[in-house]
């Protein structure tokens, strides 16, 4: 019965029994080992690959070149605009331009028009909205306020001085007003008479970049010393009485326009440059 009593003994008694001669070895705890695999760096793909069969080489199609950055185009526009504005800035809106000045201004405008491409007012009509200041007109080199059309003469010895000229355009009501500030000389000791003449028109878009204007009336408002006088509306001349040189309507092409600069070319070859004001 020794074997059965051995089974009934406690583990402590078993370990202390003199019958067990061999030393007792208990398992030691092993540290927890985490295996981390390092990711091998990806090798750059060689555009020329060797085929598995024979010595045939396969050449990958190179990717297309990236498009030019938008900033470069904006910088080009800014550079060409500054060039044009620099040429016309000292010409007193064209009144002081000679033939050489006219040629330089025309060349600079053509450069900007070519880079910008054609104008589409059907999609960019909102760009017309606002009050535009005329900074150059090639027609003023004729020394008349009417440009290539009949108009008041101007000059150092004449009592008519041209001030600022604006165009006020409303794309909703289709109003198109040419506004000119004029100073009329008066005999001494009377002060000169300062007036603002507004030539009111309606406009419509023809094609993609042509604007046709139809004259309606002229309003004259005094400024300065006589600014309290009421404005005077000059009635429109009936079409039957208009001379052929003054039909009451005209058209011109918008050849460049952005947020602050506009270039137009008139039906009589007039080049005009405007900036938003």
From TrEMBL:
Keyword tags: Plastid, Transit peptide
Region (Disordered): 40-73
Localization per Swiss-Prot or TrEMBL: Plastid
Entry annotated with the keyword Transit peptide: yes
Signal peptide limits: none
Domain Plastid lipid-associated protein/fibrillin conserved residues, every copy: 79-274
Superkingdom of origin organism: Eukaryota
Biased amino acid composition, Pro residues: 61-70
Main subcellular location of this protein, as a coarse class: plastid
GO cellular component, one term: plastid
Pfam hit, one: PAP_fibrillin
PANTHER family the record matches: PLASTID-LIPID-ASSOCIATED PROTEIN 4, CHLOROPLASTIC-RELATED
Annotated family: Belongs to the PAP/fibrillin family.
Name under which the protein is recorded: Plastid lipid-associated protein/fibrillin conserved domain-containing protein
């Amino acid at each position: 019965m020794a074997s059965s009593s051995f089974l009934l003994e406690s583990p402590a008694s078993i370990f202390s029994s003199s019958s067990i001669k061999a030393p007792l070895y208990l398992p030691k705890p092993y540290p927890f080992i985490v295996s981390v695999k390092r990711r091998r760096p990806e090798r750059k793909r060689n555009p020329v690959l060797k085929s598995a069969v024979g010595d045939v080489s396969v050449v990958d199609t190179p990717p297309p070149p990236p498009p030019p950055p938008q900033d470069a185009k904006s910088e080009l526009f800014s550079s060409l605009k500054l060039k044009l504005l620099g040429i016309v800035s000292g010409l007193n809106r064209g009144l002081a331009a000679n033939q050489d000045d006219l040629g330089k201004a025309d060349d600079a405008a053509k450069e900007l028009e070519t880079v910008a491409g054609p104008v589409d007012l059907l999609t960019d009509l909102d760009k017309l909205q606002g009050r535009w200041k005329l900074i150059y007109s090639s027609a003023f080199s004729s020394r008349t306020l009417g440009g290539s059309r009949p108009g008041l003469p101007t000059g150092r010895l004449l009592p008519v001085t041209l001030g600022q000229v604006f165009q006020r355009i409303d794309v909703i009501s289709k109003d198109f007003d040419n506004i000119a500030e004029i100073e009329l000389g008066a005999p001494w000791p009377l002060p000169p008479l300062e007036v603002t003449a507004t030539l009111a028109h309606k406009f419509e878009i023809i094609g993609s970049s042509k604007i046709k204007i139809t004259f309606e009336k002229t309003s004259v408002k005094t400024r300065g010393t006589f600014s309290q006088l009421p404005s005077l509306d000059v009635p429109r001349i009936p079409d039957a009485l208009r001379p052929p040189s003054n039909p009451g309507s005209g058209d011109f092409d918008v050849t460049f326009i952005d947020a602050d600069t506009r270039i137009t070319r008139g039906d009589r070859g007039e080049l005009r440059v405007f900036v938003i004001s």
